[in-house]
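Forum: Protein Structure Q&A
Topic: Joint prediction for protein chains with partners

I've read a bunch of threads here and the consensus seems to be that you should model interacting components together rather than docking separate models afterwards. I'd like to see that in practice. Below is the full input, 334 residues plus whatever partners are listed. Could one of the regulars post the assembled result?
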Amino acid sequence: MHEYSIAAALADRVREQIELHRLRRVSVVRLRIGRLRGVVVENLSMFLGLLLEGTAAAGAKLEVDEVPIRLSCPACGMVAEAPEVWALHCPRCMGPAEIVAGKELTFVSLEAE
Amino acid sequence: MTEIKVVENIMKLNDSVAAEVRALLAERGVFAVNLIGSPGSGKTTLLERVLPKLAPLSEMLVLEGDIATTRDAERIAAGGIEAVQITTGNACHIAAHLIKRSLAQCDLSGRKYLLVENVGNLVCPAEFDIGEHAKIVVLSVPEGDDKPLKYPLVFQTSALCVLTKIDLVPYTDFSIARFKQNVEAVHPGMTIIQTSLRQEGGFEEVAGWLRSERTRLGAAA
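Posted by a regular:
Agreed with the consensus. Here's the joint model:
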């Protein structure tokens, strides 16, 4: 359900870019989203489509690069990918690990003319 | 077709309003917490029981987030604590601008604690920074001991977990040991405080946690 709020914020960012670069047509909106964000891309895409109707970005394709969760262990130095969103301890020494990637919610680029 | 590089945080507007709220509160010496939990987990009851033990009533302010009704704000106000209801319409969470707007109507002088009760939901509220200094996740025994694994984000981003209704453990399959193990998997080292309204337990401990966090975070100006 909160995908709507993210889509609304993203639609504002896209409109800013359209105005800034005086774009006539946007064909692709590219994002980077960390797995920990739990964003349902299909929902985000649907809301974004509705919100961008009537703009230069109407019908633009949403491309999402999903970022895996990466952990770094301050105790033993292990760097690893978390296999599941709920397995966030160090897989080697089982101590608390720091999350170094997986929380991204980034508007990366546009394909436009 | 050309590629236009942007590289910015999608939620930058919400996050900048949240940062503004956090700075305002810190400047006024107010420690703010964002209470997150399912509908019926006991968030309002927790506030009703903890706040009288926390500080003089005039030092606290409560913002109650709900989709509809002012019931929760009325419950808190009945205890002599100033409470403002935020109705989100149909939104599943509180966003930072709603806090900013509500605070503009409140007198912050002499306040030391701001308690924001978010909309009952374990999913969306965890995603939105509202300018709090700490999030607290509230889970009740009937919801089940597997919830940290099913809703990891709220457990990861919260500083404290309050487990409510522990007097119901004998009537359910809930295992406190398994719950602790599941919390540990998603948030190693997380503090858990167990409470029970019927057995009158744990509320003093939650008040103590809030006092020490306020001091630790230096909001105690």
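The mean pLDDT of chain B is 94.
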